[in-house]
Amino acid sequence: MSQLYELSEVAEQNGKKGKPCWIIIKGNVYDVTKFLSEHPGGEDLLLEYGGKDASKAFRQAGHSSDAEKDLKNFKIGELRATTTPTTTTTTTAPIQVQPTLKDQDKEKRVSSPVPADDAEPMKKSSGFLCCC
Ligand code: HEM
């Protein structure tokens, strides 16, 4: 099993102040300290990614398959999979939609055969009009 490194451990080895230069490419950790001066793309490019994830930059530089194969010569381990705490976000209980007071009110009004109270004054008034 290969050595596992925390992201913070890798970040410390950024090639600055005489420290080793480690980079991450596709979850693997590479020590490129000895390769810095030999890199055809230049030392500065590698140092720019010292202690960081260079996966995207490595891909975008359009490296040859030989360069890809070369990678294994510098591999020192793998990045430890980050286990982000999910306890706060795993409330998967289905959301129960409770009918609102308005909805309940609507149902009552629709199903009730008796007209609402405000119909009463209408009856009275229409009775009064009929008499005339
Ligand atoms: C362990 C990591 C790396 C290895 C082993 C490596 C290896 C190589 C090799 C063998 C070449 C010659 C061309 C080829 O065969 O593709 C090359 C070129 C190049 N590399 Fe890297 N490389 C590494 C990391 C990086 C990183 C992180 C960058 C960041 C941008 C980078 C940028 C470049 C560029 C721009 C060239 C082209 C140089 C030119 O054509 O003038 N490389 N690299």
From TrEMBL:
GO terms for molecular function: electron transfer activity; heme binding; metal ion binding. Its main location: membrane. InterPro entries: Cyt_B5-like_heme/steroid-bd, Cyt_B5-like_heme/steroid_sf, Cyt_B5_heme-BS, Cytochrome_b5. Residues 82-94 have a biased composition (Low complexity). The gene is Dper\GL18032. It comes from Drosophila persimilis (Fruit fly). Gene3D superfamilies: Cytochrome b5-like heme/steroid binding domain. This is GL18032. It is found in: Membrane. The lineage of its organism: Eukaryota, Metazoa, Ecdysozoa, Arthropoda, Hexapoda. Signal peptide: none annotated. It comes from the Eukaryota.
